[in-house]
Design the sequence.
């Protein structure tokens, strides 16, 4: 296999990559204005929002195209200086699931092309699409506009289907085919980790030279430990959220769906109660998020599960947290659990660690990168509740070990920032633009060596 490159590493080289003036970012099924943690809003929303803001700070204008889901939304919203969100009407404003959106791609694409047609020729220098639905739109737009397409998958159907949670619905064949098409047509594919990059190459036959690894970041100003007495900070954070100020708190933060596997944590608490009931009597498990995906089929399933397993008294449910309440929740927890069956990266794990809280995570996908096993948290092989219960039993009473992991979590999180991510993306954009211009020059000159796609 050819050696993968990282966008960050290439950007630090001597080559003077051109910088785009304006980027069209396409996010069909979810808007960066939506609250993460419910519906289809999650880590991808955070990624698009944070990257767009920092690109604008680097004097790169960003226009984000997303589907309108409410009649109350204006056609265009200025999210930040240099960043605009354009709401494209495609299908009914409400009531469409992500699985129904392929039928609206034609309408959405038409809206994107009309918006560009109202601009002077050459308005956008590059397209960056997110998720396969957006990649389909970007594929057509790049042909019409004559600009390169950079694509980030965020999740891959073949990977999800290979690691499916029990009872979860597999991704449809139409999505698999759509992803294969986008992989074949994109000028650059941005993978969040080397694991994802290898999946693109091995499972989708992506050209290695077109795959760049650019790791996501974390807002280190927002997600940070509180200076001073940590015990006092934990007490304050718990009071703020209405949680017990004594005892142990383990938190799950994310969308409530089988893929994210919050049920594993609840089952682990039930297994722990059989083993060490006194420890569980001091434990509060917080499930923070809203139903999403196939979790919408039974939105009360976790509540029912906690009751059936006899641990309802130990589980608290919170809606998605906004503003300073989310960092407060991370600080209030002794441990944050990320038991997902698959994650392309796992921003929740990084946010928690940046707040100084160790993470227990399944050893899958990008979590192997986001969590440094034995240093910033613990990676657990598999999803068997007994294995998770054993880890909880070992770590919760061990205050010194948790403190050491908390320090390691802070240090590990400092290796990631959105500025570093944007630096890597700018390098990838520059490569794509340079290659695209060379290809055009080759076509004009008739030189087959220059006009070769890659």
Sequence:
């Amino acid at each position: 296999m050819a050696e993968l490159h990282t966008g960050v590493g290439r950007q630090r080289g001597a080559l003077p990559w051109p910088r785009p003036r304006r980027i069209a970012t396409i996010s069909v099924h979810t808007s960066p204005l939506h609250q993460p943690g419910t519906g289809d809003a999650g880590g991808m929303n955070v990624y698009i929002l944070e990257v767009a803001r920092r690109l604008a700070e680097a004097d790169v204008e960003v226009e984000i195209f997303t589907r309108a889901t409410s009649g109350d939304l204006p056609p265009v919203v200025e999210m930040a200086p240099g960043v605009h969100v354009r709401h494209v009407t495609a299908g009914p404003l409400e009531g469409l699931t992500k699985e129904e959106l392929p039928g609206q791609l034609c309408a959405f694409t038409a809206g994107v092309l009309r918006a560009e047609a109202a601009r002077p020729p050459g308005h956008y220098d590059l397209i960056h699409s997110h998720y396969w639905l957006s990649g389909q739109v970007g594929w057509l737009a790049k042909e019409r506009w004559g600009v390169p397409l950079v694509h980030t998958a965020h999740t891959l159907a073949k990977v999800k289907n290979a690691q499916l949670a029990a009872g979860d619905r597999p991704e449809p064949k139409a999505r698999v085919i759509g992803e294969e098409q986008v992989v074949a047509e994109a000028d650059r594919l941005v993978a969040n980790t080397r694991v994802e990059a290898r999946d693109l190459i091995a499972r989708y036959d992506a050209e290695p030279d077109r795959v760049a690894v650019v790791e996501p970041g974390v807002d280190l100003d927002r997600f940070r430990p509180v200076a001073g007495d940590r015990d006092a900070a934990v007490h304050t954070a718990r009071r703020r959220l209405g949680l017990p100020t004594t005892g142990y708190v383990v938190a799950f933060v994310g969308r409530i769906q089988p893929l994210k596997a919050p049920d594993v944590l609840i089952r682990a608490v039930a297994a722990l109660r059989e083993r060490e009931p006194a420890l569980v009597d001091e434990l509060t498990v917080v499930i923070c998020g809203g139903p999403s995906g196939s979790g919408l089929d039974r939105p009360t399933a976790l509540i029912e599960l906690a009751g059936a397993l006899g641990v309802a008294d130990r589980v608290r449910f919170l809606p998605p947290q906004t503003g300073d309440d989310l960092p407060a929740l991370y600080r209030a927890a002794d441990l944050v659990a990320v038991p997902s069956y698959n994650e392309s990266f796992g921003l929740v794990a990084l946010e928690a660690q940046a707040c100084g809280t160790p993470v227990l995570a399944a050893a899958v996908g990008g979590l192997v990168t986001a969590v440094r096993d034995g240093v910033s948290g613990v990676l657990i092989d598999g999803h068997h509740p007994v294995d998770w219960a054993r880890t909880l039993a070992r770590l919760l009473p061990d205050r010194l070990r948790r403190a050491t992991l908390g320090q390691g979590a802070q240090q590990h999180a400092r290796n990631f920032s959105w500025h570093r991510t944007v630096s890597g993306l700018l390098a990838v954009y520059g490569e794509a633009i340079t290659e695209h211009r060379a290809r055009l020059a080759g076509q004009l000159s008739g030189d087959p060596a220059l006009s070769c796609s890659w």
